[in-house]
Amino acid sequence: MDSATSDRAALQATADNGLKIVVVGGFGVGKTTMVRSVSEIRPLNTEETMTRAGEAVDDLDGVHSKSSTTVAFDFGRITLDARSVLYLFGAPGQERFWFLWDRLFSGTLGAVVLVDTRRLADSWYAIDRLEHHGTPFIVACNDFGGPLHTEQQIREALDLSPDVPLVECDARDRSSSKYVLITLVEHLHALSVARAKGADAALTGGQGAAAMTPERTP
User: Fold this and answer.
1) Cα–Cα–Cα angle for 73, 66, 77, nearest 5°?
2) Which residue has the higher pLDDT, 101 or 30?
3) Which terminal residue of the chain, N or C, has fewer Cβ atoms less than 10 Å from its own Cβ?
4) Which helix (H) or strand (E) holds 77?
5) CA dihedral sign of residues 73, 76, 81, 83
6) How far apart are CA 212 and CA 218, in angstroms?
């Protein structure tokens, strides 16, 4: 397990607002790579070398070259400003570690579902769990050089709601991974604005209905 801290960037003493985002997806879609590429500190990785013992439980179809795997979670950090820090958690992709996901989702603002378009079915569980928890998310297609699919084909395969953003990315590239996170933050902001407008409309409508209710005379 890699937990070295020798090159960690110091966290400012004024930072008192921690924000959490989770990166989820199927086995071998690039979650560890994304956290590693965008984190300002050396990420905490719980990667272990894959052995023959895991061949019976881990589906290596499409990822035969994979030699290590996350056995708990990945952790990275991005300083947003003097007071706010973004914490990134990468969830393990194998089915035998899915029991960890509910804990990782606790307290998160939203999630990135990273997918390999060659193995879209591997992402169904991630989307199902996020929807079950009511956690906002976006979908990012990591570029593995596979066959091209249209946005509509991907949306239909994943049964995505039209309001869920879908973007392409290269998880190895820092700027591309940052764009994915920015897209998620913008999506979360749009949802927050929509909820605020809905609450205002409900309040206004309730006041209007109260004003129209005739007073009862004794």
Assistant:
1) 30
2) 30
3) C
4) strand 74-79
5) positive
6) 19
Lowest mean pLDDT among 89-103, 126-140, 180-194: 89-103
Long-range pairs for 175-180: beta carbons < 8 A, 24 or more residues apart: 177/34, 177/37, 177/38, 178/38, 180/34, 180/112, 180/138, 180/140
pTM: 0.75
Q: Which phi-psi region, left, alpha or beta, contains residue 30 (left: φ > 0; alpha: ψ -120 to 50)?
A: left
With residues binned 3-state (H G I as helix, E B as strand, rest as coil), the percentages for the chain, rounded to 5, are 40, 20, 40
Specify whether the CB–CB gap between 83 and 14 falls below 8 A: yes
Domain ranges of the chain: 17-42+71-200
Residue type, 76: G
Tokens of 77: 């950090």
Q: What is the pLDDT at residue 209?
A: 56
Per DSSP, the three-state class of 115 is strand
Task: Provide the token pair at 177.
Answer: 């991974």
Lookup result for tokens 């066959």: 147
Q: Residue 30's closest CA among 76, 85, 93?
A: 93
Separation CA 21–CA 98 (nearest Å): 17
pLDDT of residue 9: 66
Q: Are strands 84-90 and 17-25 parallel, antiparallel or unpaired?
A: parallel
CATH number of 17-42+71-200: 3.90.480.20, 1.10.645.10, 3.40.50.300, 3.20.20.100? 3.40.50.300
